């Protein structure tokens, strides 16, 4: 996917300045025209013009300060998060989750429909359309739906809004582009790890980072890479396949065709298989039989104090840490934000991760790498799916 810079002309300058103003009002919350001019470096007359247009579009509105010291009462500008709405969708193996949010990604409504894993592309689209129509009925007449964002696991071709292949869902070439022609609004599809990472660029405690890595693990393993406040997507959108960094030469054969992929040493399947091995060797205190051990059983055993199972979770963390260290050395991020179902194995997994990444190429530098757990809870995927829409709507319009 070639990103081409737009030609510089008056229209582009206007659009950039407009997005600068929206960004400032959004992030500061309440600001006067004078302060907006100072913050953006734009002239007061330019600010006045842009603000006038944005007030007409209802993207921002004026509020009085409530005080006056004799002179003119200062007027502040606020971002109107209720001017529009966004729908986020998360497709999982057994269900599809939906959220209707405002432009600040505050969830207004959430819903969920069960999913037959054998569902066809056509049936899936019908289900999604039916549910989105139901959510749309809750929009106020003046509330414009800006777009639909869809989070899904697997390899996504963003230019065609198609899921090329998902080992977790066992689907190939599921096309979501008919949603765009049906609803006549922009639709964006992206993989779970990118969506998770984007959520943290738009919401939560760590929005200020310019360079960070979002990492998710559980059934699969993935990463999203943020460089200069922008999600790095690679040549066709496939970046961040963190689970397929090779950490073991001549290691376990992965479904991708390589041997020794990190995912083979860090996913739920790895934990289940290794726990079964422990049980067969008589080394687990909690499990008596290696039959039908689930990932939830493993977390419970660790919480109940099964030392060998706890050690296994630490080992999983170390394996993740080895992979993370490679990304850190390559990209020199400010932070790593960790999430996904696998975090149920904390604190043991975290011990392993921290142990491995404590020493990296940059350890001697005074600026230390920050490691955080996601603060967005189970809604992180829906928040990120909605962020797909806003990221396109409000980003600096410098590319064609
Ligand atoms: Zn692989």
Automatic annotation (TrEMBL):
InterPro entries associated with the record? ATPase_NBD, ROK, WH-like_DNA-bd_sf, WH_DNA-bd_sf
Q: Which Pfam families match?
A: ROK
Instruction: Note the superkingdom of the native organism.
Output: Bacteria
* Annotated GO biological process: D-xylose metabolic process
Instruction: Tell me the keywords, alphabetical order.
Output: Carbohydrate metabolism, Xylose metabolism
Q: Which SUPFAM superfamilies match?
A: Actin-like ATPase domain, Winged helix' DNA-binding domain
Family in the record: Belongs to the ROK (NagC/XylR) family.
- What's the stated role of this polypeptide? Transcriptional repressor of xylose-utilizing enzymes.
Q: What is this protein called?
A: Xylose repressor protein
Q: Which organism is it from?
A: Paraliobacillus quinghaiensis
Species classification = Bacteria, Bacillati, Bacillota, Bacilli, Bacillales
